[in-house]
Amino acid sequence: MKKYNYQIISAFFLLIAAGCASTVKITSVAERNKDGDVLLKWEVSPDQEGSINIYSSQSDSDISAFTPIKTSNITDQVTVINPSSPDIREFYILKTTSAYSGIIADRIIEMSNIKNFRDLGGYFTRSDQQMKWGKIFRSGDLSSATLYDQERIRRLNIKTIIDFRSDKTAKRYPILVHPNIRKISLPITPMDNEKINEMMDDENLTRSDAIRDVQDSYIGIIENYKTEFAEMFNVLTDENNYPVLLTGSLGKDRVGLASFFILYALGIPQNVIIDDYLLSRQTIDVSKIAENVKTKPEYFQEAVTALMSVNVVYINYTIDYINQKYGSVDNYIEKELKLTSGKKILLRKYLLYNN
User: SS3 of 210, please?
Assistant: First the structure.
């Protein structure tokens, strides 16, 4: 199924009615249009006929206890939902007579002046447990948050912000959120804003140079910032800290690796985690960021684009490095980031729905 901008993507492995001989699967995707409506799209396999009920709630608990807000034909495969308010999150469940979906919610959360703000929840583990929505969010720089953005963050009930920016950047560009939100600084600085600006001053920079520099910076993070990631997991194994927001400059590299480790520790399939990493392509407008180099040579513009983007070669290079040096990503997380089996149990308790 095609991926959509402003999407809510879920692939759900579902309950089967008693006596049913084959597993019924509902795959659902949703996108917001320019008017703020939600387009729910689905596929039911094996193919079935009949009706599909759509349930909605402003809470992710007991959604199906309510009366359906809409009933469609399974074969329609799409319907439009008008949310009660564009600024209030709603959660959805789809039901047929033989199966129901997991919980669907907005993954990409539109902000007026914060890039790459999204919910890390909703994914399924290899054992078909779904990650809770609204527990961990990720974003780019919060220093230019508008009052509208700050109010949206407040409504998400975020209690803790983990800031991966350098101390220098954080001091120069302080986070703009409600003062009651706890802020934890875990600086990770292999390629901070100052380093990127220095590279962008080098007009001999090529795309291959930029790719190599980003890959090297990822390895630098893996090797030199284990303590910071270990502390992140300490924060995440304290239930009182939730919901948590992970933030950086663009929210794609340091936040991307942090999100990778969290999802991996929960048992989310690696291909799904990589897709989440690559979602930053849709939420960061690189053309606007690179606007000030449009008069430069084309090879230099391509280099800047490589610096400001996510690329599957970056994350695959990092995974290969970890596997070769540490045996597996699981080994790295357990031994280097100190996520013990006991901590992992707590993490999964706080972040996974009970089946």
Answer: helix
| Helix, strand, coil fractions of the chain, as percent rounded to 5 | 40, 20, 40
Which part of the chain has CATH 2.60.40? 7-95
CB 169 within 8 A of CB 248: no
pTM above 0.85, yes or no: yes
Contact 142, 251 (CB under 8 A): no
Sequence-distant (≥ 6) Cβ neighbours of residue 224 within 8 angstroms = 190
Burial 295-307 (b: 16+ CB within 10 A, else e): eeeeebbbbbbbb
Closest by CA position to 31, among listed 41, 21, 46? 41
pLDDT digits (tens, 9 = 90+) for 272-325: 999 999 999 888 887 776 676 776 777 777 787 888 889 999 999 999 999 999
The Cα–Cα gap between 43 and 136 comes to: 28
Give the separation between CA 177 and CA 166, rounded to whole angstroms: 18
Q: What is the DSSP letter of 124?
A: B
Q: Domain 118-351 has what CATH class?
A: alpha beta
Identify which of 40, 26, 39, 29 has the alpha carbon closest to the alpha carbon of residue 97: 26
Question: Does the domain spanning 7-95 belong to CATH 2.60.40?
Answer: yes
CA–CA separation, 130 and 119 (whole Å): 13
